[in-house]
Design brief:
By secondary structure, the chain is α+β, with helices and mostly antiparallel strands. It has one domain. It has a three-stranded antiparallel β-sheet, with helices on one face. Strand 2 and strand 3 form a beta hairpin. The protein is elongated, with a radius of gyration of 16 Å. The model has no long low-confidence stretch (mean pLDDT 83). The structure holds zinc ion.
């Protein structure tokens, strides 16, 4: 099973303001003026459901079945 990963794509004054989920490319926005942008982004990431998780699992099954049939 693929592990989802949070990737910071933009920082302002060393504070993360834009991050994406590497698995489904959902974007998370932090507010550099709030002081806790890092944890705000992290909790948005923890709460989100990957959009393409079902699709990618189905794709992974298809790939392994194809490999097995060879
Ligand atoms: Zn995701």
């Amino acid at each position: 099973m693929a592990k989802r990963n949070l990737r910071i794509v933009k920082r302002v004054r060393n504070v993360p303001v834009i991050a994406i989920c590497e698995l489904c490319n959902t974007e998370f926005l932090g507010d550099p003026n709030m002081g806790n942008a890092q944890s705000a982004i992290q909790s948005q990431f923890n709460a989100h459901k990957c959009k393409s998780e079902v699709a990618s699992q189905a794709a992974a099954r298809t790939v392994s079945k194809t490999t097995k049939d060879k």
